[in-house]
Amino acid sequence: MTWLLAALLLGCQSDEPANYGTGTPTTLSTTIDPAVAHPSCLEDAELILETPDEGDFAQYLEYGFTRYTQVVAPGGGVIPIFAQTEISKTQLLRARGILQFYLTDVPGSTWGADKSDVANAMVTNGAALMMPNDEHVEGEEPPLPAQPLYEREMPEDGSDWFMENDFKHRDAAFEEIFHLVHDTGIGTTAPGVRPEYQSDLLAEALLAVEDGRWGIPVDPNVAEWIAELEQEGSLSQEYIAAVIDSYYGLWGPWEDRPGAMWGIYAAKNRAEMASVDPVGMALLEQFLPPMLTHEIRLDPALDVAFTLTFDPALPYTHKSQYMTNVTLTGGVNIALTGNSANNTLRGNSGDNVIDGADGDDTMVYCHAAAVYQVTADGDSWTVTGPDGVDTLIGVEWIHYADGAVAL
Q1: CB–CB of 91/98 below 8 Å?
Q2: Which of 261, 264, 370, 406 is deepest in the core (most CB within 10 A)?
Q3: Interacting residues of 313 by C-beta distance below 8 A, sequence separation 6+
Q4: Cα 164 to Cα 158, 192, 293, 351, 392, distances in angstroms
Q5: Would you place residue 46 in the very low, low, confident or very high pLDDT band (cuts 50, 70, 90)?
Q6: Strands 403-406 and 397-400: what pairing?
Q7: How far is it, in rounded angstroms, from Cα 54 to Cα 63?
Q8: Distance of alpha carbon 185 from its chain centroid, rounded?
Q9: Closest Cα partner for 149 from 135, 166, 165?
Q10: What sign does the CA torsion over 362, 328, 95, 152 have?
Q11: Which range (42-51, 55-64, 195-204) has the least confidence?
Q12: Rounded to the nearest 5°, which phi and psi values hold at 265?
């Protein structure tokens, strides 16, 4: 089972942390004023770069990581995400989005109100994520100083794997990317900047094993796995990762037995968590927000309506109900429905029906307002322009390349 593969920083760590230099602004292929355009439009081009054959990048190129993207920390340093050849653009940008989400400030939270020092610590500690092809085989990991996230551990949002909730090779992206933040930013294997938070996480992980909330022995190998984690100093990382996966709905559709993580963690979703693991839930909320705030770009092959409103008849909505900022890609004519949050929604090049549902919702277009024709039709609006013909329902704002206007 993949849960036996403890997510640790693999490979040969050098004496000195890697230095990937400083980040550069995205160079746009269109003339968009970044002062008024939506960030989604600014991130349409040149986020994925060729891996250079120089400095600390060269070792990744040698092992077939031909492309990378990056998150730039407030101090200007870079946290790179390297990809081998079979990693899709959507997968690579999804990893970037999740890392950005983890490093986004959460106003009013105990440990996440200002995460600039966490991101800067990751740079100082040489944090990097690598995305190898295929699936993890124990002992065959690329010998590089990076947190691994394999192709078969990460679906594209909106792909068949995502929509059908294929637990044969589960979505490990939230877990593995948080391990990177945890180890090199919060601080476990490297000196981090949240030692008090880490102390609380470790204490609760030990209690969770003791009182049966996590490390539940559904299989004879679980006890051995927990012992290995304790010996390696990884208990806190794996415990809070289990909490994160259930909190954001990744295990909500799983019905094989009670709990989550194949039954190893007691809570399948937030409702169960509030009852059986309220301390773990509170610890998560001291650093992360209730909703996923990063832009989520759906698989261009998606050809069915996609909704952010929970519907028990649509198992994928256990996850999508926590999304707030969603973009359709490709050119299929499909519908996108929001939820009760203040959604930011964006269509593709096809003709889309966009329903904001409740909340104060914004539709994004990446050309100037002058090239669009907007007409009212009862309670809906029709927008005709370079992106096709869209029908907007329950949308309060349109954000064009030259600014936002109220409908």
Answers
A1: no
A2: 261
A3: none
A4: 9, 38, 23, 25, 28
A5: confident
A6: antiparallel
A7: 14
A8: 17
A9: 135
A10: positive
A11: 42-51
A12: -115, 140
The whole-angstrom separation of Cα 306 and Cα 109 is 31
Selection from 341, 311, 306, 310 nearest residue 325 by Cα: 341
Q: Are 154 and 95 in contact, with CB atoms under 8 Å apart? A: yes
- Burial state string for 210-226 with b = 16 or more CB within 10 A and e = fewer than 16: eeebbbbebeeebeebb
β-strand pairing of 353-355 with 388-393 = parallel
Place of tokens 């100083």: 145
Q: How far does Cα 345 stand from its chain's mean position?
A: 17
CA distance readout (Å), 46 to 41, 158, 352: 12, 23, 26
Which residue, 334, 333, 336, 312, is CA-closest to 324? 336
The Cα 96–Cα 79 span in angstroms is 10
* Region for 68 from its dihedrals, namely left if φ exceeds 0, alpha if ψ lies in -120 to 50, beta otherwise: beta
Candidates 116, 117, 150; CA nearest to 136 is 150
Question: What mean pLDDT comes out for the span 102-124?
Answer: 98
Identify whether the C-beta of residue 37 lies closer than 8 Å to the C-beta of residue 145. no
Q: Quick check: 3 pLDDT over 50?
A: no
Q: What is the dihedral sign for C-alpha 328, 333, 339, 341? A: positive
Question: Tokens representing 247?
Answer: 């909190």
Residue 362 three-state SS: strand
pLDDT of residue 24: 61
Q: CB neighbours (10 Å) of residue 290? A: 14
195/155 Cα distance (integer angstroms): 33
User: Which two tokens mark 271?
Assistant: 């409702």
Residue 169: predicted pLDDT: 85
Tokens for 248, please give them: 């954001």
What whole-number distance in Å separates Cα of residue 294 and Cα of residue 290? 12
CA distance 112 to 326: 23
Q: Which pLDDT score is estimated for 138?
A: 86
